[in-house]
Amino acid sequence: MYLEFFKEHGHKIMPSQSLVPVNDPTLLWINSGVATMKKYFDGKVVPENPRMTSSQKSIRTNDIENVGKTARHHTMFEMLGNFSVGDYFKNEVIPWAWELLTSDKWFGFDPERLYITYYPKDHDAYNKWREVGVAKDHLIPDEDNFWDIGQGPSGPDTEIFYDRGQEFNNLADDDPENYPGGENERYLEIWNIVFSQFNHTPENTYEPLPHKNIDTGMGLERVVSIFENAPTNFETDLFMPLIKQTEDFSAGKKYGANKADDIQFKIIADHIRTITFAIGDGALPSNMGRGYVIRRLLRRAVVAGKKLGIDKPFLAKMVPTVGKIMQDYYPEVLKNADYISSVIKSEEDRFSATLNGGLNLLNNVIEQAKKDGTNEIDGRTAFKLYDTYGFPIELTKEYATDEGLTVDQKGFEAAMTEQQNRARNARDMDNGMGVQTDLWTEFKDPSEYVGYTDLTVNDAKVIGLAHDGKQADIAQPGDDDVEVIFDKTPFYAEMGGQVADTGDIIDNYGNTVGRVVDVQHAPNQQNLHRVELKSPLKKGARYKLVVDRLRHLKIEKNHTATHLLDQALRNVLGGHTQQAGSLVEEHYLRFDFNHFGQVTAKDLAAVEKMVNEQIFKEIPVKTIETDIDSAKEMGAIALFSDKYGDKVRVVKIGDYNTEFCGGDHVKNTNELGLFKIISEGGVGAGIRRIEAVTSSDAYDFLQKRNAMLEEVASDLKVAQIKEVPHQVASLQDELKQANKQVEALQAKIAAQQANSVFDNVEETKGGKLIAAEVKVAGMGQLRQLADSWRAKKLSDVLVLGTANDGKANLLVAVSDDKVKDGLKAGDLIKAIAKAINGGGGGRPNLAQAGGKKPEGIQDALKLAKEYLNK
Which superfamily, per CATH, for 552-702? Predict the structure, then answer.
């Protein structure tokens, strides 16, 4: 209803974007509708339609502890929004808001139940609300009604509240928070309309924006609670199926019967939605960033299940329920339910395996703290819960708070600095926008890209020119940031992972005027050339543009190979794999994709073979321009970070692969010649990366490998490369036999040394001591000597040291009788290991240490004697 309303008012419905931000390092998650539109609001891109509307799935992680304890807190929610980029403003958006909320055709809310807060100095907004019929006593000035998140667009806002009635009032009539805008349950905020009209500058001033904007946000879950007259968001159709399913899993628990249990039901319902969508969008559990958030939410939900008596893994079974609730708008959740469930089950099984031990320890600690009257869980215990049992510190603190205890945060941080840093990384980063710039925003003259068919343009006119951040009629060598727009160009602008073309600008006399070093898109999507000048360049003049042809053709090959690789990964690893980024360069391609677990050598070989099979089949590569709906009917795959308009290009590689793509491609797969994967590995939580080469670069790679094999063959003195594996196997067998002989000889030498070492027994206050430096192969033979010593009962204490390859090893053995007397090998090894700049430990009767100072072994032996004489 919301989207259709604004569609009728000329807005373009924008699809809900992935929760994982694309090309935006300032955000951990997409956390609002406007987060996906920052490029429009800061002027980097001019939208196709300045009026847009969306229902955007969002995640906010800065208030996880309150989820389940309040009526409205969620980690994932949907934000309804309508946006204007330099088009309409207060005079339009306020009447539309009132119409949507009160018209019987739309929401049909009773106007008497609606209250509006506004910025006291914003008289225009106040007057407009009065014009549409809002009573004076329903308009409330509030100094907080100014939207400002730091540098970038900012301005006053107006918030709309729904009066749910006195029966929802949780405060006394004279409570200072008992008003629309206060902290109460009666007046529910449903919509915030921001009037972006200032630039918050780096100098902390507020300057008028070149273009005024509208940015609004309405919480879908809140509005649903009004339509369904639900006490909280959780009693709506969005959550109740999940709560009912949790009841079935629990030990007879029922929602609504007990307040403490209700919190756990809500935690599970909220968190499984978030986890499901986050994993579906490519994020995976880990110990950092987004992965840490997923892991923390999953563990919090598992613990909540424990409190409801659920002792077996259950969260993975709830994924289809999430999918069914959301399938009208998000059908992909059900489509990928098996994959999402498998990820959740793996993580849940791992946590459940240690959870019971952790909970037992925590409960015992809580009970003991209460007995001792300390009312605090010490930092070491909190660290052990994290390190051994997987409890995030926040979960321990939350558990402790429920029991009226605190946690020694400083002690925890001292024991776990590195992990705590990871935890801090799992917070949303600054989500401010850049300061709005209008250098190219108003420049709308068309520029045609002809590089799909022509790599040279003989008569290109300069229609836009700037340098040093300003428009200009002429640019000179030495000017900074020279940017040029031509009426037509063969230079590809970087997009979709494909790097920009480079090449030359040539005048009518054949002289090179400048070098095109980069090409990006201007806000209105013209190709914007970054140029290094050798001679002056003039606006209105005409030049010859020449793309570096060989470089361009290599990039084309690698781009087509990227499509072949993307499809091969889906075919071999499964349809859940999604592109998570790509780079198409001249000499190689890089492809990042989501995948849970390792990629085996067998799978990698199958992927490489499949790509090469398509090359050898000599498949024609066709490009089709069509509308977006027709492209989807063709089964075209939308790639990771591309932006698609109403008209799209579809690249079709026979029946093998069909994808949306605005990049350059070969005419036939045979042009690639050969495809070779040169590396594969993990680059983040659930993100794998493949680097590969094609054509001459693949040939060069294989030639280098062949040269290495020939060198090995020469060293092994075999006539042909094919004999290398056999020769290597023979050498390995010989090496094994030689090692056995060496070990036998070393054992014999050690035994001979033992006879002389064990003869030297010294008396100390702590008992009889044998201490010596011996020449053996390492710690293994020291332990053999200790076994012989123990069997013969030659003394109370044995201390041995040996040096090998610049390193030192120490061993301490203590007889069983002395262990009973309180002498521990671990204590002794710690006391003497400092002499070799090392450390160690072990059991009471046997301990060992390693260090980097072999010359300190004799000092260590002296320290042992001193230790026993204390």
Answer: Threonyl-trna Synthetase; Chain A, domain 2 (3.30.980.10)
